[in-house]
Amino acid sequence: MYDEFYSMLQGVQNVGVIAHFRPDGDAIGSTLALGLALRAMGKNVSMWNEDGLPARYEFMQAGAELEVIPDTMPADLQLLVCVDNGDWKRLGDRAAEVFAHAPLIANIDHHGTNTRYGAVNIVEPGGPAAGFVIFKMLKEWGCTITPAIAEALYVAVNTDTGSFQYSCTTPEVMHAAAELIAAGADVAEINRKLYQELPLTTMLMQREVLNNMVVEDGGLVSHYSMPAGRKQELGVTLEDTKDLVDVVRMVKGVKVAVIFEDLEDGRIRMSLRSKDHRVNVAEIATQFGGGGHSMAAGIRCRGELEDVRARVLQAIRQAVDNISES
Question: What is the 8-class DSSP label of residue 217?
Answer without folding.
Answer: T
